[in-house]
Amino acid sequence: MICPASNIDIIRCNQILNQAEISIKNQGVVSFRFAQIAKDSGCSTNTLYKYFESKEDILVCLFLRNTASTRIPDFIKENPQLSINERAVLSLLFTFELIKRSPIFNILRLVSINSMFWQLASPDKISILKNRVNLFWSCIRNPLDDAVAAGKLSANELELKELTQEMYFFLAGATSSYQSGLMEDCYLTADDATCFRHISRIMNRYNWNQPITQEMMESLAMRISQFLDYGQGKNRTCETCLATGKSQNCKSMQ
């Protein structure tokens, strides 16, 4: 389904998605029903189908408007003094802070990127989802390229690709493990200090002029937290999602 274009359609979509998010929080991803969303949001079934073909479309849209890439540009605008080292870890720390505030975001992420799920969504939603996932990868990779260009990091193309993958794989594994709640504390310690130590070790295996420190990440995480609680980062709407979709990579969003 094509995303809404008019203000009225955007408002209606937001109302439907807001209600869907409430339903998922109360019932879970598996149990919430597509048809019930129309009733709960006060619209007809025809109106619901005007914007979403299926339950999968709704879940993909909920994930898209919650993604870190929709809010990182505003954070950068509010914090233009960010150092290259801070930008290098921004995407990871931003995602961890998002999940603290909205556990449903991580659930939506895990569901939406599962190929058995997203292939059931409409072609337009699939296209946007693919672009957004690759956009997030660029949010990790581009600051590393900038660090090399500025002489802050010495790395060749293979090393940059490997570091990008290491950062993403750590993020995906850590968030999935924390969310599951299945591991005992003796195997998994879910706190910021542990997370920062892991990130620091990953980053500092590479040749940075100045190391990526835990203290720097603590300060950055605090600023991200304040932004999400009080700044533009609270916005989770179709408008922010549509605006993000117009960008091809994180550089064009800054």
From TrEMBL:
<dbReference type="InterPro" id="IPR009057">
    <property type="entry name" value="Homeodomain-like_sf"/>
</dbReference>
<feature type="DNA-binding region" description="H-T-H motif">
    <location>
        <begin position="33"/>
        <end position="52"/>
    </location>
</feature>
<dbReference type="InterPro" id="IPR001647">
    <property type="entry name" value="HTH_TetR"/>
</dbReference>
<protein>
    <submittedName>
        <fullName>TetR family transcriptional regulator</fullName>
    </submittedName>
</protein>
<keyword id="KW-0238">DNA-binding</keyword>
<dbReference type="Pfam" id="PF00440">
    <property type="entry name" value="TetR_N"/>
</dbReference>
<feature type="domain" description="HTH tetR-type">
    <location>
        <begin position="10"/>
        <end position="70"/>
    </location>
</feature>
